[in-house]
Amino acid sequence: MGGQNKKYYFADLEKMSSDEHMNEDVQDIACPRLVLEYNKHMGYVDKLDMLKSIYELDRKSKKWWLRIFWYLLDISLVNAYIIFKNRNTTTKSGKCMTLKDFKLAVCLGLIGADENIPKKGRISSVQQNTFKANVPREIRYDSCAHMPIHGSSRRCAYCSSTSTPHRTKWICSRKRK
Q1: Domain span at residue 156?
Q2: What are 48-67's pLDDT values in tens digits?
């Protein structure tokens, strides 16, 4: 059984030092063990509130129960992060995972972002026009200054890939056709 089932009774007394600031007297007094345990862990509530408020999930809602749901979800995520942090001290890079990264990992795990989810519905039989530049590679990547210049009115290759063709007077200085 060990120390897993701790039962505290008010009659269990421990010695605790009390400081008298006026007389500068320090005395050992009898104190319930429950009070000692409380004093030992009383900063955890403040730490939980601080971690919860960093990346809060609270959403405004007219339904009161939804606000309680967001609060409980936030508290359980912070508690899970604390347990995760205590068990896994470091990641592969040597740093501990932040709360933001932990919440993101939980969200991605819940929505299944790692899996390839097939799209619902039919596959479109109509090919959509996509822009394909017909500029030769040697001109396109020659790292010269490709500057726009004013030319004659022509059909824009990019804009005309949509349903309505557009015209432009601007052309590339390297490709004068």
Answers
A1: 145-177
A2: 888 888 888 777 888 888 88
